[in-house]
């Protein structure tokens, strides 16, 4: 089979695709806060959960922030900013 006709696996993106209204999966053990309550990076109330970068955050706050970023990106795209 030549390289042009070989079946290729679909390329995976580094960041998983997100859809509006989708809930985040925080079932991995590293999302749980190592015994320390620290202020949530979004609302400031103590949180023992950690986001994907290890910052303290509530899951609901992270989902709201992601939805806001998505809405802003859509608006910027529609207005020709992006």
Could you explain how this protein is built, in words?
By secondary structure, the chain is mainly alpha-helical. The chain has a domain of 49 residues. It is 24% helix and 5% strand. It has 1 helix and 2 strands, in the order ββα. It has a two-stranded antiparallel sheet with strand order 1-2. The longest helix has 20 residues. The chain is flat and about 50 Å long. The model has no long low-confidence stretch (mean pLDDT 80).
- The count of β-strands is 2
Structural class assignment: mainly alpha
Label the overall shape: flat
Low-pLDDT stretches are none
Distance between the termini: 42 Å
| Proportion of residues in helical segments | 10-25%
Output mean pLDDT. Answer: 80
Count of separate DSSP helical elements: 1
Order of helices and strands: EEH
Largest sheet: 2 strands, antiparallel
The strand line-up of the biggest sheet is: 1-2
Q: Which percent band covers the strand fraction? A: under 5%
Instruction: Tell me the radius of gyration.
Output: 18 Å
Helices and strands in order, then pairings?
Blueprint: E1 38-39, E2 46-47, H1 59-78
Antiparallel strand pairs: 1-2
State the gist of this model.
This protein is mainly alpha-helical.
């Amino acid at each position: 089979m030549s390289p042009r006709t070989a079946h290729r696996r679909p390329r995976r993106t580094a960041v998983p695709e997100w859809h509006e209204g989708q809930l985040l999966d925080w079932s991995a053990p590293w999302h749980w806060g190592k015994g320390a309550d620290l202020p949530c990076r979004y609302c400031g109330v103590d949180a023992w959960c950690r986001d994907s970068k290890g910052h303290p955050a509530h899951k609901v706050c992270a989902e709201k922030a992601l939805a806001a970023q998505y809405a802003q990106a859509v608006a910027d795209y529609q207005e020709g900013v992006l």
